[in-house]
Amino acid sequence: MAHVNIKQGQQARGVSSKLRLGRNVGKAVAKVEERKLRKVGNSVGVTIPVTILNDMGLKEGDTISFETNNDGIVLKRKDPIVTDEFMSLIQKVADENDAALKALVER
Predict the structure, then answer these.
(1) β-strand 3-8 against 72-78: which pairing, if any?
(2) How far is CA 68 from the centre of its chain?
(3) Could you give the 3-state DSSP secondary structure of residue 44?
(4) For the chain, what is the total number of helices (H) and then of strands (E)?
(5) Own/partner pairs, 67-72, CB within 8 angstroms, 24+ separation
(6) Do 22 and 4 touch, CB atoms closer than 8 A?
(7) I need a surface site. Which of 39, 60, 65, 103 has the fewest CB within 10 A?
(8) Helix 98-106 crosses helix 84-96 at what angle (to 10 degrees)?
(9) What's the pLDDT score for residue 92?
(10) What is the pTM of this model?
(11) Which residues pair with 35 in a beta bridge?
(12) What is the mean pLDDT of residues 31-56?
């Protein structure tokens, strides 16, 4: 599962020690980028840089999870439970077993 770690209080080369973005805990900094928090309705939001989206394999509509720990925040891509491939398989099974499924409904 791809993820990005955000750690507070660690010095990255040439950058203030506010936040550190990296690929895995304990590894070297892969990218350092800054974004402002902005009000979005009753919440606060932040944009994710395209380079990080690409590194994590994320696109619009994907779900991510935020895990907090003593070091900061871990962003993880949440893989969908129901995929397009799964839905295609279900449709194929339904098409092949239409009569049996209708009989079950009538029971």
Answers:
(1) antiparallel
(2) 15
(3) strand
(4) 3, 6
(5) 71/5, 71/7, 71/8, 71/25, 72/5, 72/6, 72/7, 72/8, 72/19, 72/20
(6) yes
(7) 60
(8) 80
(9) 92
(10) 0.45
(11) none
(12) 89
